[in-house]
Amino acid sequence: MRGFEAAGGLLRERIRTAGESRGFAVSRLLTHWPEVVGAEIAAQTLPVKIGYAKGGFGATLTLLVRGASAPMLQMQLPRIREKVNAVYGYNAISRVILTQTAPTGFAEGQAQFTPAPKPAPAPPAPEVVARAAATAEPITDEGLRAALEQLAQNVMTKSARRAAQRKADPS
Q1: What is the pLDDT of residues 129-141, one digit of tens each?
Q2: Strand-by-strand arrangement of the 45-51 sheet
Q3: Taking Cα atoms as reference points, which of 10, 13, 30, 31 lies closest to residue 22?
């Protein structure tokens, strides 16, 4: 037992292995991309792969870029290369390649899903509203009374729903 340990420490080896399989010897390039190249460039790019030449020097960084942003980013490639090499501490990256892609599916594994809309809850039965009001009647503070009435309605409605489910499914 080592006691409490930061989550990053527990996952460090797996992140390093996954990053190295895609050519990222420095995982910080992936995890801190906005800090490395700046928020403006990071919003338009995504590092995908680092490919090394046979000799091991002069790697190529491949970035995914939205098609419309590519011409502007093409002019900034020397600056991007300098910033990335600053992370490595030496001139590890000799080329940066932009791969244009469509905005949909741009960030792999980061798809945004909108949940199905929840149906509006059915209004509570009139007898539940009356019982909840009677329960909270002695409270003099209006805000507190309204909150307690709502709580009582929720509890009574949920209890009634559970009882109905038990009747329908006796198993």
Answers
A1: 999 999 999 999 9
A2: 45-51, 59-66, 93-101
A3: 30
Residue 163's pLDDT is what?
Answer: 85
* Top-confidence residue, 160 or 127: 127
Q: How far is CA 100 from CA 97, 111, 133, in A?
A: 10, 18, 62
3 state SS of 123: coil
* Residue 100 · residue 74 · CB < 8 Å: no
Task: Tell me the domain boundaries of the chain.
Answer: 7-101, 126-168
User: Residue 41: is it exposed, middle or buried by C-beta count within 10 angstroms (0-12/13-18/19+)?
Assistant: buried
Assigned token pair, 73: 């980013």
- The contacts of residue 98 (CB under 8 Å, 6+ apart) are 45, 63, 65, 70, 73, 74, 77
Nearest-5° angle of CA 59, CA 64, CA 66? 145
Q: What is the pLDDT of residue 12?
A: 61
Instruction: Please tell me whether residue 94 adopts helix, strand or coil conformation.
Output: strand
For residue 130 the two structure tokens come to 């009356």
Q: Residue 50: which H helix or E strand, with range?
A: strand 45-51
Amino acid (one-letter) located at 39: A
CATH number listed for the domain at residues 7-101: 3.30.300
**β-bridge partners, 63:** 47, 98
pLDDT digits 0-9 by tens, 60-80: 888 888 878 889 999 999 999
